[in-house]
Structures are given as C-alpha cells and as structure tokens.
Automatic annotation (TrEMBL):
<dbReference type="GO" id="GO:0015937">
    <property type="term" value="P:coenzyme A biosynthetic process"/>
</dbReference>
<dbReference type="Pfam" id="PF03630">
    <property type="entry name" value="Fumble"/>
</dbReference>
<keyword id="KW-0067">ATP-binding</keyword>
<dbReference type="InterPro" id="IPR004567">
    <property type="entry name" value="Type_II_PanK"/>
</dbReference>
<dbReference type="GO" id="GO:0004594">
    <property type="term" value="F:pantothenate kinase activity"/>
</dbReference>
<keyword id="KW-0808">Transferase</keyword>
<keyword id="KW-0418">Kinase</keyword>
<dbReference type="InterPro" id="IPR043129">
    <property type="entry name" value="ATPase_NBD"/>
</dbReference>
<dbReference type="GO" id="GO:0005829">
    <property type="term" value="C:cytosol"/>
</dbReference>
<protein>
    <submittedName>
        <fullName>Type II pantothenate kinase</fullName>
    </submittedName>
</protein>
<keyword id="KW-0547">Nucleotide-binding</keyword>
<dbReference type="GO" id="GO:0005524">
    <property type="term" value="F:ATP binding"/>
</dbReference>
<keyword id="KW-0173">Coenzyme A biosynthesis</keyword>
Length: 280
C-alpha cells in the first residue's frame, strides 16, 4: 500500500498527515484566507517538504467543513471524502487504543462522538469553543489575537471573576468542594484586569465543554473522554480537566497529535475500508 494522505479542511486552516505502514508521518498545519487556498497550500507543501512523489500516493481523503468546496481530484490523485464525525472517532480510537470512548472535538464549536468498538455515532455538541473565546475576547478585551489571549490568561486569576462555592457557603456541598465554580463570571467587576477576564473566558469555555461531556456520558458505561482539536493546546487544559476527573470519577485524555486526529481518522477511514465518497 502506498501513502494515504488524510486532510482535515477547516474554514481557513488545513491539517494534513500521511499514513504509511501503520505509521503517522509528519503532521502539518497550514493557515490561509479561504479553504481552497489552505487545502492546496497544505497538500503542496506537505508533498514538497517530505519529498513525496505523486506516484507513491495511493489515496487522498478529505474531511471537515471546508471539503465541501472540493468537487474534483487534487493534482489528479485518487481523491475521496470521509464523514468528519467518523474521522474524529477513528482518529481518537487509533491514537489511544481505547475501544469505548467519547471523542470531544474542540474547535470553533464542539462536537461529541461516541465510539463503541466499531460503531461510531455523533451524539451531539454545543456552540461553545474557540469561536466563543475569540468572540468574547473581541468584545471584552478588544482583541482577537488568540496567542495574545492565551498569554493574558496565563497571568490571570479567577478569584475576582468566578463565584465559587466558598463565596456562598461556609461548608462544602455533597460532591462539591469549596473552590468549585458556582457561577461563571458571577464575581466579575467592571474594572477587572484584562488577564483575569481572559482567564475567565478560557476557563468558562473549557469547563463548559468538560461538564457537557460528562453529562453526555451519563446514560452509558463510558468513562474515557478523548479531547481533540486545536483547543487541546491551551495550557489551562492541564488544570481544568484533571479537576473534573477528581470530582466525577472519569478520565480525560489528550492523545499525541490531538489537533490532527481528524486528519488521521480520514486516512484511516480509507485504510479500514469505511465508507468514503469518491470525488470526481
């Protein structure tokens, strides 16, 4: 089998990875002003940087919202499309060796996919994610520079932003320690430092995603939640998700190449002979 290339095409970003002999080869991220430019730029750069001959590429598999703009083979290569939720499930399962799991794709918004052995099912999602962080930061911090927002948040404190259990009672509630959030932004002051506001926004988004994932698992036996997507790179993940693990007896995992799991899963959809729609 030749190289199978999986490509996750977003609105303006493209993630690409090659899979050959069961191994992941050099994941790559490219950003551009539109999906088509991003896609062709990513594929061309990937082939060039890795010294790949077109004749060694067996298949190109596209997924993601931006793949809807593609209706002809790329560079004349055999090209197909895989369902994004299927790709999420296959990629996360492959990178963790888990059989049963919930896959939480944290992008502009958030989707949740349930995987049980060979069955992959999209069970829902929420309109909270990276887009929420950028939108609220534009309103409250007058910036949509994601790196700047993250940098501010790393120096912030929630003490004067979120209302905690200890602010409304002297004693812990059943299953709720005193430092658990009772109300997001419940103590926010109009003059709060930008660093605190930034942390409050990031904390709200990640905590909401974590709690919704736990709620989504309540009618199943699944306790392993695999986080994928760009938001897994936020440093606050290391604080927020372990705390939810302690409180709820679940496990959140961020696998290697978490932001590339959907692209990996797209390639695996073809390799594992799942349903792929031919292009052209």
């Amino acid at each position: 089998m030749g190289i199978v290339i999986g490509i996750d095409v977003g609105g303006s970003t493209t993630k690409i990875v090659g899979v050959a002999d069961g191994k992941i080869k050099n994941p790559m991220f490219v950003k551009a002003t539109d999906p088509v430019t991003s896609l062709f730029g990513a594929l061309g750069k990937y082939i060039y940087d890795n010294d790949i001959s077109l004749s060694t590429i067996e298949k190109v598999i596209l997924t993601g919202v931006g793949s809807a703009y593609i209706d002809q083979p790329l560079y004349g290569l055999p090209t197909a499309k895989a369902d994004e939720f299927l790709a999420n499930g296959l990629g996360a399962q492959y990178m963790t060796d888990l059989k049963d799991l919930l896959v939480v794709s944290m992008g502009t918004g958030t989707s949740i996919v349930k995987v049980m052995n060979d069955k992959v099912e999209h069970i829902g999602g929420l309109g909270v994610g990276g887009g929420t962080i950028l939108g609220l930061s534009k309103l409250l911090l007058k910036t949509q520079d994601f790196h700047h927002i993250v940098s501010l948040a790393e120096h912030g404190s929630l003490d004067n932003i979120d209302l905690q259990i200890k602010d409304i009672t002297r004693y812990p509630l059943p299953g709720l320690p005193l430092d658990v959030t009772a109300s997001v932004f419940g103590k926010a002051d109009a003059n709060a430092p930008a660093e605190d506001v930034a942390l409050g926004i990031v904390h709200m988004v990640l905590q909401t995603i974590g709690q919704c994932t736990i709620f989504a698992s309540l009618n199943s036996t699944i306790k392993d939640f695999v986080l994928i997507g760009n938001l897994t790179r936020l440093p606050q993940c290391a604080d927020i998700f372990p705390r939810l693990e302690e409180m709820c007896n679940v496990r959140f995992l961020i696998p290697a190449h978490a932001e590339y799991c959907t692209a990996i899963g797209a390639a695996l959809a073809y390799i594992n002979k799942k349903i792929c729609r031919e292009v052209g």
